[in-house]
Write a structure and sequence with these properties.
The protein is mainly α. The chain is built from 6 helices and no strands.
């Protein structure tokens, strides 16, 4: 079975690095609402990643018989609510957060999940 905790940790480090990078860029450039929006959206994307990891961990433990499956698992609904909350905050404070940046930021972990395995292709082929 795959070690999901190591993968989730790696994705978390990448996402936090991107958040810090865009916060630094926001300090340096005058169009900071866009970069602050990306960092803000990426923060919610990180929360969604952690939520997904916990859900996968819970399901894995239930499949291994280590734990009984719960009646209710916060999954897709929680991630949708988090994304809507991020957009709502951006719409409430447009002078600080640009909505386009928040939408871009919300996709950060998904882009990392899609691109990161490409860097391990050589290792997998050996």
């Amino acid at each position: 079975m795959m070690d999901y905790s190591a993968v989730a940790k790696r994705y978390t480090i990448f996402t936090v690095s991107i958040i810090l990078l865009f916060l630094l860029v926001a300090l340096l450039f005058p169009n900071s609402p866009l970069f602050l929006g990306i960092a803000f959206g990426a923060s919610f994307s990180l929360l969604n990643l952690i939520n997904t990891y916990l859900q996968v961990k819970r399901i894995g433990e239930a499949m291994d018989g280590m734990k009984k499956p719960g009646l209710f698992i916060f999954g897709t609904l929680t991630r949708i609510i988090a994304a809507v909350a991020a957009v709502a905050v951006a719409m409430r404070f447009p002078e600080y957060l640009q909505i386009e940046g928040v939408l871009i930021g919300l996709t950060v972990t998904y882009v990392i999940i899609l691109l990161e395995p490409m860097f391990h292709m050589k290792r997998l082929n050996q």
